[in-house]
Amino acid sequence: MAQLFETEPAATKAVAYAQVALEQGIDTAPTGLTYAVPAALADLKPGERVRVPLGRGNKPTNGFVVELHDTSALPSVKNIKPIIERDRHGVSLTPELISLAKWIASYYCCPLGMVFATMLPAAVKKGTGSVTRTMVGLAAAPEGRPTKLSKLQQAILDTATTRAAADHPWTEIKELADLAGARSVSPVKQLLDKGLLTTHREEEVRSDLDLRAQRAVGELDPLVLNAAQQTALDHLINHLDEGFGVHLLHGVTGSGKTEVYLRAIERVMANAHANGSDHPPSAIVLVPEIALTPQTVGRFLERFEQTNVAVLHSGLTAAQRHAQWRRIRRGEANIVIGARSAIFAPLSNLRLIIVDEEHESSYKQDQAPRYHGRDVAIKRAHLAGIPVVLGSATPSLEMYYKVSGSEFRVSSSGEATSHDTTQNSKLETRNYHLIRLPDRAPGMKMPQVEIIDLSDERRKRYEITGKAGVHLLSLALERALTQTLKDSGQTMLLLNRRGFANYIACPDQRCGWLMRCHYCDVTMVYHKDERLPTGGVVRCHHCEAEQTLPSTCPDCKKNITTFGLGTQRVEEELARKFPDARVTRMDADSMRHGRDYQQCLDAFRAGEIDILVGTQMIAKGLDFPNVRLVGVINADTALNLPDFRAAERTFQLIAQVAGRAGRSDKPGRVLVQTFSPHDPSIQLAAKHDFESFAERELQQRAAVGLPPIGRMARIVVRDKDHYACAERAQTLATQMQQFNADAGGQVRLRGPMPCPIARIADYHRQQIEMLAASAGPLQTLLTATRNSGLLRADQHVAVDVDPVALL
Ligand SMILES: Nc1ncnc2c1ncn2[C@@H]1O[C@H](COP(=O)(O)OP(=O)(O)OP(=O)(O)O)[C@@H](O)[C@H]1O
Ligand SMILES: [Zn+2]
């Protein structure tokens, strides 16, 4: 260290001090470390990405400047290490994003630098695809005496002058020569030698993304909004300049929410000088997973052809993502459509945020920082003082609870009563609005949903055939399929489980052998695969471990049996029963790349597929007018999971997939097969009755203080060593109980206890669950625990605030 100062005193003399948050996240300094700013970097600004030395070995490490100070708050100024250099590609974040990052770091209990790292696409950090071009332009103050110029030299100088006047001061050497009619670049070089032209290096990211190809086709006729759409739009327009507000657009499936978003954005774009900013107005549209929602994206690209749209999602190559980000950062694109992380788009003058399908769990990131894209969107809107629109046919209970100004309070038995929640929520509801689109867009009706009792069905089959056993397709669904095929309509069949069979077992119940993963506490799933000599493979859906299918039980040597449902089995059953139908399966196994979805959906739209079988992937936002039949093979897959949101998920899945039917003037029909025909979430989904479902479910959650009425956080401790895991979890829990008691005991702590899946990928897992009446006490407890050094954000401990996945 000392040497560094002695050898380069002038360059490293500190002109200021910077708080730098390191991307790798340092738990002992969660908000960053102090570094000296050398004279060479005197113009450094907050938000810039820099390289700094770390640790004894001064390992160069990336971080972001959070704040700059004239003096250092640290006692020994001598030992402060200097920043090495700024990011080679000049990457920086806007002040607005710095504020947002600070909130995320504190709310989700994650080191600030890790949040910054998450905000930037990896391709931007690596500079993938960037090339440096040498540009030439007129020299500001030509050196030397004017000399006589050749005709070509003069032509080039004139061209450069004209371009400069037209706001293009810099041109590539070759291009300038071409424009002036010179055959080679030598006259340009001569002018550079004479000092009449000068050079400048410009970085550019090359990528070949053609957004035009992704536009929706058709739908060119301007739609006339129906009354509810118009009311919704008027409401939004009225609030555009009213500052922060959350507007939940609860519109039934096919109610035309997209059209409302489009018009609201049109309005924002038209109002260029609304707030006196130099930058054009901009907007962000979040969609759950772009590969699954190509139609929504297509509609935006179609409508805003003139404006500059950028897309950000995992289907792009690294260079394409980098190029899109640069366009946004430079202000060339001002409408950004993307998945979760697009909420970090570095836009200036942001005026509106839209979160489509806000209930989708894919908005929650499952690694640190474990943020929820929708909630970050709300915070970003709050910081920017602008409206955010959340759209869904099946709103999350979190959002519905907030906007409906619900009367639910945590009951006395739930311990979690607190007066301050009531007051907070009163304050909050003023900014929260509910807009409803109760009917489908003109010309379409909600489909009729029938519930089919599978136990009844089993009995009927037995009476007819004399054979016991479960059939994937009920008689009613079989008949409906036959009819739909005859009418040249299309069908979607949902089964939320991949593979062929999810149980591989010994047929002898006294033996009871069941094939489990070696590394996880779950059963293995059998996948058929004709490309394999064995005809299939047994796979774990949690760690991806694979084995071959055993032919006999390892314990008692009887021939094994496979049972349980899977999409492959449905596909096989359809091939047997409807040999002439064109069937395609759409799940994570059959669709490996973004373009697979695109191809499959294009084929479906073109009518080349009669029956589309798939997991929840097919339930999302798709709009195909010829779908007349939707079948849910088994509505119970999510119902019995050990997760307090099981009913909510079941409701959403059924309501959403049912919503794919009848999206034209032809009526749609939906058949839902279940062993729990009287379950309220299934019953109410069949009636399209979201309100009753929500009221009922909220009442039950209130009774036990669960979210959204109470707030939850969860800590998962994992370790390959069972005892180390249990011990660490116990130490943590004991310490937390103490902190909680010290702070007045406002948090209900549960655990440590094994997670519902107690081992994944050979890691044992223990959890501690926290519930409180509001977020504040959870924050206090987590902060105290972190400050005590017990909550390192390493691979052994995961902190999850507002958890979505509980397994
Ligand atoms: N006012 C209108 N008149 C005629 N058609 C309309 C109108 N508004 C929307 N549509 C059409 O209705 C269909 C459904 O609209 P959209 O996909 O926006 O529904 P949605 O509310 O997003 O539904 P979901 O929640 O199921 O995704 C689209 O094909 C759209 O073009
Ligand atoms: Zn496994």
Automatic annotation (TrEMBL):
<feature type="binding site">
    <location>
        <position position="517"/>
    </location>
    <ligand>
        <name>Zn(2+) 2</name>
    </ligand>
</feature>
<dbReference type="Pfam" id="PF18074">
    <property type="entry name" value="PriA_C"/>
</dbReference>
<keyword id="KW-0067">ATP-binding</keyword>
<comment type="subunit">
    <text>Component of the replication restart primosome.</text>
</comment>
<dbReference type="InterPro" id="IPR005259">
    <property type="entry name" value="PriA"/>
</dbReference>
<feature type="binding site">
    <location>
        <position position="506"/>
    </location>
    <ligand>
        <name>Zn(2+) 1</name>
    </ligand>
</feature>
<feature type="binding site">
    <location>
        <position position="556"/>
    </location>
    <ligand>
        <name>Zn(2+) 1</name>
    </ligand>
</feature>
<keyword id="KW-0238">DNA-binding</keyword>
<comment type="similarity">
    <text>Belongs to the helicase family. PriA subfamily.</text>
</comment>
<feature type="binding site">
    <location>
        <position position="543"/>
    </location>
    <ligand>
        <name>Zn(2+) 2</name>
    </ligand>
</feature>
<comment type="function">
    <text>Initiates the restart of stalled replication forks, which reloads the replicative helicase on sites other than the origin of replication. Recognizes and binds to abandoned replication forks and remodels them to uncover a helicase loading site. Promotes assembly of the primosome at these replication forks.</text>
</comment>
<protein>
    <recommendedName>
        <fullName>Replication restart protein PriA</fullName>
        <ecNumber>5.6.2.4</ecNumber>
    </recommendedName>
</protein>
<keyword id="KW-0479">Metal-binding</keyword>
<keyword id="KW-0413">Isomerase</keyword>
<feature type="binding site">
    <location>
        <position position="511"/>
    </location>
    <ligand>
        <name>Zn(2+) 1</name>
    </ligand>
</feature>
<dbReference type="Pfam" id="PF00271">
    <property type="entry name" value="Helicase_C"/>
</dbReference>
<keyword id="KW-0862">Zinc</keyword>
<dbReference type="Pfam" id="PF17764">
    <property type="entry name" value="PriA_3primeBD"/>
</dbReference>
<dbReference type="InterPro" id="IPR014001">
    <property type="entry name" value="Helicase_ATP-bd"/>
</dbReference>
<feature type="binding site">
    <location>
        <position position="540"/>
    </location>
    <ligand>
        <name>Zn(2+) 2</name>
    </ligand>
</feature>
<dbReference type="InterPro" id="IPR041222">
    <property type="entry name" value="PriA_3primeBD"/>
</dbReference>
<dbReference type="InterPro" id="IPR011545">
    <property type="entry name" value="DEAD/DEAH_box_helicase_dom"/>
</dbReference>
<dbReference type="Pfam" id="PF00270">
    <property type="entry name" value="DEAD"/>
</dbReference>
<feature type="binding site">
    <location>
        <position position="553"/>
    </location>
    <ligand>
        <name>Zn(2+) 1</name>
    </ligand>
</feature>
<feature type="domain" description="Helicase ATP-binding">
    <location>
        <begin position="238"/>
        <end position="413"/>
    </location>
</feature>
<keyword id="KW-0347">Helicase</keyword>
<feature type="domain" description="Helicase C-terminal">
    <location>
        <begin position="548"/>
        <end position="704"/>
    </location>
</feature>
<feature type="binding site">
    <location>
        <position position="520"/>
    </location>
    <ligand>
        <name>Zn(2+) 2</name>
    </ligand>
</feature>
<keyword id="KW-0235">DNA replication</keyword>
<keyword id="KW-0639">Primosome</keyword>
<dbReference type="InterPro" id="IPR041236">
    <property type="entry name" value="PriA_C"/>
</dbReference>
<dbReference type="InterPro" id="IPR042115">
    <property type="entry name" value="PriA_3primeBD_sf"/>
</dbReference>
<keyword id="KW-0378">Hydrolase</keyword>
<dbReference type="InterPro" id="IPR027417">
    <property type="entry name" value="P-loop_NTPase"/>
</dbReference>
<dbReference type="InterPro" id="IPR001650">
    <property type="entry name" value="Helicase_C-like"/>
</dbReference>
<keyword id="KW-0547">Nucleotide-binding</keyword>
